[in-house]
Amino acid sequence: MVSDLTANPSPSIVHKERPLPVYSGFLMLFVLLAILAADFAWFAFERPYDYRLVISLLIDLLAAFSLRGLFILQPNEARVLLLFGAYKGTVRTSGFHWTNPFYNLGAPKGGGLARGRLQARLGQTGAADRSSVNRAPGYTRISLRARTLNGERLKVNDKRGNPVEIAAVVVWRIEDTARALFDVDDYQNYVPIQSESALRHIANMYAYDDGDGTETTLRSNVNEVSQALRAELQERLARAGVVVDEARLTHLAYAPEIAQVMLRRQQAEAVIAARQKIVQGAVSMVGMALAELSEQRVVELDDERRASMVSNLMVVLCSESEVHPVVNTGTLYS
After folding, report:
1. Is the pTM higher than 0.85?
2. d(Cα 72, Cα 92) in Å, to the nearest integer?
3. How many domains does the chain have?
4. Pick from 3, 16, 18, 234: CA 20 to 30 A from residue 81's CA?
């Protein structure tokens, strides 16, 4: 029996967010304060005290403990409610609310160690990221606002094995609070790690550049690459209840060790492409000139004179410097 359980462990439970109704905080605050005032008046003006002292203290303790059920939610903020470790629901409505005071009693705040590691990881990304981590809410309170992850520059190999530097920015937000808190250890650490992994995989799928222009590349097809990155990120982060609103490349360059070599290669490809255009244009112009001369019978050219004319025109049209013609005062055969 034990061996069967070891060989086939049960899969992890996937949670799903469910709404939980709450009551008006202003109404419950008024009711609790009224109970406290009535209890104080009953205890102060009624004598003898005898057993009423015990009852009054119990009422006071119960009313004071019920005040723990009051909480405030800001816009785009949610609170996850637990009852002795069991998930009961999520409140998304902003305002002043009251709920069962036993909810979240003794719930861990979580994310301390993981958040500390994340702070160290974001130490090089700027003060804005560090401040957003320091102000992170507790375990049962979670922000639903859009967040921006400005990834670090990564050195990876593209499809052809060339080392490139690449970075991306990701805009994400929490969609399912239950998955974010219960299906992953720390979603704030989970998002940047999965984003880096997805970016490395995308960079390996495409070449940096393609001289023929027949395939999707990182440099020439930024929109297509960004869409592929967003799709892969959404697939990876769905487990944490995260929705990726946008993912876009912010930096792309060859690694320094091959940057000069690749620059010379790009320059050579540009020169070859320009030469091809020049030759194609020159051949077209020469053919047009010969056709016009033949149609209008300006001059009759045999094969040798036609070849000489083609040679001279090609030199004039394809030369990079100014051509100085030589005037022949004799005949072509002299």
Report:
1. no
2. 11
3. 3
4. 234
